[in-house]
Each structure stands twice: as C-alpha cells, then as structure tokens.
Amino acid sequence: MPIVLAPTNVELKVIRILTDEKVKKHLESLGITVNSKLTIMSSSGGTVVCMVKDGRIALDGNLSSKIFVA
Amino acid sequence: MLKFALAGNPNSGKTTLFNGLTGSTAHVGNWPGVTVDKREGVYKKCAEPIAIVDLPGIYSLSPYTPEEVIARNYVLDEKPDCIINIVDATNLERNLYLSTQLLEIDVPVVIALNMIDAVERAGDKLDEKALEEKLGVPVVRISALKETGIKQLMDVAYKASKSPRKGSTALKDTALSHLIGDVKIALDGQGVKNPLFHAVKLIEGDEIEVAMHKDTLKMVEEFKKTFTDDVFGTDFEALIADARYKYISKNFDSVLSKKNKGSMKMTKSDKADKVLTHKIWGIPIFLVILFAIFHLTFSEDFLYLGAIFGLPSLEELGVDTETFGGQLLACFYDGAVFSPGVIINNIWNEIIVGNVLGWIKTGVESIGMAEWAVGLLNDGVIEGVGAVLSFLPPILVLFLFFSILEDSGYMARIAFILDRMFRKFGLSGRAFLPMIMGFGCSVPAMINTRTLADDKERAATIRVIPFFSCGAKLPILTAVAGAIVAAFGIGNADVITFSMYLIGIVAAIVSVLLMRNTSLKGDTPPFIMELPSYHAPQFKNLMAHLWDKTKHFVKKAFTIILASTIIIWVLTHFSFNWTFLADEEINQSILAQVSMFVQPLFTPLGFGSQLGEFGWVFVVAAVAGLIAKENVIATFSTLAACLVAVASLNVEGLDIEAEEGIDAVRAMITATGITVPALLSFIAFNMTTIPCFAAVGTAKAELNDNKLYKGTLLFWIVASYVVGAMVFTIGTWWWTAFIWAAVIAIVCYVIVTINKRSAAKKA
C-alpha cells in the first residue's frame, strides 16, 4: 500500500518507489530505498512525517502516494 | 596553503564548525539548507595556515538541487588536501551513506563525529574506535557547538593530509565488484582522476557522469545487458544505494549500541511536533506566533493593556516629559505600556540618537561655515542618515525573533505545514524558507532559492521574494503608518504595519499563481524535507546574527545612503542653470522639475498630479528607493526640511528634527494634502516595485538567463503599479472593488480557457 494509507507507529518495509529518477535518487540518499525500513510518525490529509533511520522526513501527499510499503 | 573542505549532510554542524575554526560569524540556522554557497576562511593554529572551505550540505554526491552541485564540483575539481566529513552521530546510518561515497575519492578523509553528546544523553553508546577501524580513516569526536575536540581534529586532519590516500568502496563484496574494477581500470587508462569514484557513478547512471564518459559508457551498457538482480532488475542505481545501506548496517550496527533497541521512542521533538504540525492547529498557531512577533516589535499598546484598563496618559498623571526622568519614563509608558520593541526604539531614538544628532547639528552651526554648507550637512546628510539609523532597533528586534524561530527548528516545520497550501499555488513548501528570509533581506533570500530543485519554481520564487518586505522597507512602513495614526488619528501602527505585510504576502501568492499558470508553467516539485530536532536557540548564535545585521545596515547608511542624500540635496538646491536655491525655492530645483514631468504617471496610484505642486516629493522618494529602500525615508527627511521652510506648514507639535521620519511624512501630508489610501498605495508600491540595486543584481545572477531577468524587471514594474492602483482606488471609492473583481474574474477566465485549450491540444 502507499504510505499515505499505511498505519502509523508501525515499522514498515519499502517495496516500491514510483517517482521519476531524480526524486528517487534523492529519496535514496535520505535513506528511503527499496528494502529499507521506515515508521510513519504522523499522517494528515496526505502529508506524512516518517522516521527513516534516525531522522524525521516530511513528504507531501503526492509523493507519499508513490512510495509503497508493506 | 593547504586546503581542507568541510563536507557532510545538511544541518550536521558544518558551518558551526567552520565558525569555530576560522573565527567567522557565518550564518547558522537549524534547518537543512542554510549554507548554499561555498565559503572560505583560514585556520591558524596548526603548523601552517590552512584554508577551510565550508560546503553546502549534501545527502549524497548525486546532486538533487543546484547547491548540491556546488559541493560535488568542489570536492572533485578543486582537489582539497583533506576532506573533513562531519557526521551527525544522532543519525549515523544516514550520514555514513555520504561517507561511503566520499571514501571512493582519492583524497585523505577524516571523520568528525559531531553531536555525540546528544547520543550519550539519550543513553546510547557509540564506539568510535570500532568505527575508525571499519572505515579505515581517522575518526575524531567533536562538539562543533561547544568547540571541543576541534584542535585534535585539525591535528589529525593535518597529519592525514600529508599522506595520499587511494579511494576504497563499500561495494567491493557485491556482485558489481568486477564491473566496478573493470570500469575503474578503463577510466584509469584514460587518465581520469578519481577513477574509482567515477566508475561507480557511471554504473549508477549518474547524469553528469554519463555525459562526461561517453566512450566508457558503452562498456557499462554491454555488461548491464548480462546482469539482472531479483529485486532491482536493471535499476543499477537503486541496487547500489541498497548495497551501500546494507554495508552500513552490517558493519556499523555494532558500533552504536542503543539503550532501548527496536522499540519506537517518542522524543521531545516528536511530542512538540504533534502540536506544532497538527493538521488543523498548525497554521493558526503559526499565524498567532507571527502576530505576536509583530505585536512585541511594533505595538504601542502592549497586550492592549491601555485599551482594556483605560490607563491614563503621562500628561494626565502630571508628569513633566521635558525633564530627563520624564523623558525616560515616556520611553516605557504613555497611556499604555509599550511593547519591548517600541521601548528599545524609544530609548535609542529619544535618548541616544535624538540627543547626539542635536549636538552634532549645533556643533555644525557654531563653527561658522557658509549657509549652504550648514544646510547640506544638517538638512541633507545628518537628517537623511539619521532617519535611516533611527530604524535600527525595529529591524534588529524583528530580525531577532526570526532568528529565534530559525534557530529553534520551527522554521522547517512552517515550511512543512504550509506545503499543502503552497501546492495549490504551484510551489512546494520548500519555497517558504527563502521567502521568509526575504523579511530580513532579499539578497540572501534569492541566493537561498538554490535549495529548490525546479528552475521554474526558482524563478517564480525569486520574483516574489521582494514582496516579503525586507528590513530596509520597514522604515517606509513604520514612518508612513505612524504618520497616518498621528495625522488622521485612525488605526493602530502595529495593525497597519501587519496588514501591509499581509498585502505583500497576498501579492506574492497571487503573482505566483498567475506565473505558474502562464509564463512559468510546470509541475509542482515534490516536498521532501528533513525536520531537524528542536533545540533552544543559542545565545551566541543569535548575537552573531544581530551583529552581522547591524554591521551591514550601518555600513550601508554611511555609504550608499550617505551618497544618495548628498545627491538629492544638491539636486533640490540647484536649478538647471546651477544657481543655488534657498529652501523656499525648492520647486525650481532640477529634481522638482524632472519629477513634475513624470508625476502624472503616478496619478492612478494616488500620489501623482492630484497632489499639486509639492506632490513630486513622493515620486522622488520612490525613485530614490530603487537604489536602496532606506533612501525613501532618508529622502523624506531631506525634503521635509525644505518643505517646512516653504511657509504655511504650521502643524501643531510637528517636529521635523524628530527622528523616525514620522514627522517628516506628516510634513509631506500637510504640504500635499495626500489621502490615507494614497499613502497606503505608496507603501504598497514601494513594497512590490523593483527592489534595490543589490537585489536586482542578485536576481540577475541567480536567474542566469537574460530573458527571464528582463521579464522579472517588467513583472516588478507592472505588479507594483497594479497593486498600488488597486489599494488607492478601492481605498478611495470602495465600489471600485467590484470593477477590480470583474477584471480579475475575466483574467482568470481567459487564462483557464487558454490553458484548457492547450491541454486539449496536447492530449
């Protein structure tokens, strides 16, 4: 499921990233790669704050519907 | 001289370390992307002086935004003697991702382990000896903030810089190691520097790299055809990223032992974020904070105590404000308690600047110079520069509050909560950071747009940054607002100031919306931002910010502003045949004659022909403002001295000598009969028109495109004319609001129809 719909405060695994190459690369350097783990801290109306490694990353709604987790 | 570069993730403390090493006061803030350009200084405490280069923060060596390109190019092309890689220990894994890439370059690397105190405070332990062993480069623990470990770091780096280092890769045990080895040998044969680094980037399919090594690319493509991975298929770039992270977690998990491993822990920052980034309350809380800042800075009725309790004025209390004690008391209270910003302002202006300038003027008069020289010095220079200097307190107080927001980490949250709103206008919330920097000064704000990944978004942001009224425009606002309150007895100065700021913001939003739907169309770039932990603002840091601001402001007052006031004084005291004019003959001066010629242009804005024979003063002030916005008030003060002499200006209690320009503006009001809407239009015009020389120059450099630049100048002229005219006409005849609404509706309709048609054509 895309992270917009994912539950909060549970550790999730990234399975697919459907953004363009440039954005995908940027997400990777921030620690959001396929196979990586993240936890959603808060999710409101599409915008999401997630904990990746030990950092907090904020993502907008459009983007968070393109990152799939399981 | 040896050259060391500071590289690391955004907000990991590079600039703090840089300041500590070089004794500079470069701007530091608690959000990712404060530094957008490289910066040099010298460290002198080693055996030989070392040039230190502070680079913009990067998450990896594959650049995403323009400022990341600067860092990458520096590291690769300028060949520093050593890279000091600052690693934020509170987010070790992510920070090491960049380290694994830096280690691929053939350059000595030293890891500076920063913020380790925060890790230990949380009860976790980090074994830096084990880290050093596994990375194969020296690791030194430091605290950039407390300046500990810095000497040791530099000694280690100095030693490291003396022995060359060959790059090593985290990918050597993966399926790609053969390919990397082959490509490396091929590149090495071509004489490419840093072959290992380039080999890996080439395999990743990095844009810059692919363009650089077209020949070798074929070989890589050949290989890629024979290779597939179960998870990543042929996405080599994702494969490599994954391999790096795997390597990091395999090797470094043991280095950091966490107290409560596995369990999710809410930090204080997370709890604060639950409230401050709340989906409903986030924006109202932000607006309240913003208003509180303006209230604390400008309000002459702190917490509205005066209005609520009906406090008596000093006169009613029978206090003699002529005595020093009474004067001092009047700085704090007069019928209402003043806000801290106003108190500081009063003390500065009434007690310090007022008296000092008075003494200087008396001194000038007493040494027996020619009358014109006394006029030039007293009315031209001292009035003009004094008026500008008198605005130092509100600028500094406002700036202090913004620095606190910035230093605490709240600024990054505002960008986040505003993102959803910004998205509707075609910008990402990221654009908010340079915009709010615009409240300080447009120049660094425009440079900061380098953190925006999309060129069109950047251009649109640069264009509207001046609408976020900068420190230099503040005097126009407070002087005119103060004069409106004093002369017409309406409103509150802080409410007028606040609403003028809002008009600027609204103009910015409307302009962005318009541009993103017409000339600068494009997808809104995604919003991806790291939210730093909150921390208490550093006193030292805040003072450094204020000191920088003060220096900049005072320097400007005594250079550009001083020169401008002299020129304006000369132009108002000489006629076209270069005869000296007394103050009373101001209307025959060169400046008056030229300005009267263009005056009609400003009639729709309320400060044109309808103001009669002295109305040109507003035109002059606005034009002088194109050089530097402080000039507007400096010009008022210089001209007011003449206008008072033109007889018939007997306003009760009017004191042109008084600072803050308020009375100078009142003199203008009396001489010209300008109305309140026209005054507001004057403010709005100055806020949205072509900014100062410095900002125009910066816009040109940052846009780096002649067509865009010319479009920007035209945009500023049109925007200011429209906004000014709108404020004036609606303020004067309220029903014109309907006409404006109709025009806006038609414009919207036309744009939407055209866009729909072109979209249909494409489909």
Summarize the topology.
The complex is a heterodimer of chains A (70) and B (763).
Chain A lengths: L10 E7 L3 H9 L7 E8 L2 E6 L2 E5 L1 H4 L2 E3 L1
Antiparallel strand pairs in A: 1-2, 1-5, 2-3, 3-4
Chain B lengths: L1 E7 L5 H9 L16 E5 L6 E5 L11 H12 L4 E7 L3 H11 L6 E6 L1 H6 L3 E2 L1 H8 L3 E3 L8 H12 L15 H13 L5 H10 L2 H6 L1 H12 L10 H17 L3 E2 L10 H9 L5 H17 L6 H5 L4 H4 L6 H9 L7 H27 L4 H19 L2 H17 L1 H16 L6 H6 L4 H7 L6 H10 L9 H15 L4 H25 L10 E4 L7 H35 L16 H9 L17 H9 L5 H16 L16 H11 L3 H13 L4 H11 L2 H27 L3 H27 L1
Parallel strand pairs in B: 1-3, 1-4, 4-5, 5-7
Antiparallel strand pairs in B: 2-3, 6-8
Helix pairs in contact in B: 3-11, 7-8, 7-10, 13-19, 13-25, 16-17, 17-18, 17-19, 18-26, 18-29, 19-26, 22-32, 23-25, 24-25, 24-30, 24-31, 25-31, 26-29, 27-28, 28-29, 29-30, 31-33, 32-33
Summed up:
Chain A has about 70 residues and is of the alpha+beta class. Helix content of chain A is about 20%, strand content about 40%.
How would you describe this protein?
The complex is a heterodimer of chains A (70) and B (763). Chain A contains two helices and five strands; from the N terminus they run E-H-E-E-E-H-E. By secondary structure, chain A is of the alpha+beta class. Chain A has one domain: SH3 type barrels. Chain A has a five-stranded antiparallel β-sheet with strand order 4-3-2-1-5. In chain A, strand 3 and strand 4 form a beta hairpin. The model of chain A has no long low-confidence stretch (mean pLDDT 90). Chain B is globular. The relative contact order of chain B is 0.07. Chain B has 763 residues and is mostly helical. The model of chain B has no long low-confidence stretch (mean pLDDT 87). Chain B contains 34 helices and nine strands. The chains are: A alpha+beta (70), B mainly alpha (763). The A-B interface holds A 9, 11, 17, 19, 21-31, 33-36, 39, 41-42, 44-47, 49, 51-63 and B 59-60, 62, 64, 90-94, 97-98, 231-232, 237-238, 241-242, 245, 264, 269-270, 273-274, 277-279, 416, 419-420, 423, 428-429, 453, 524, 526-531.
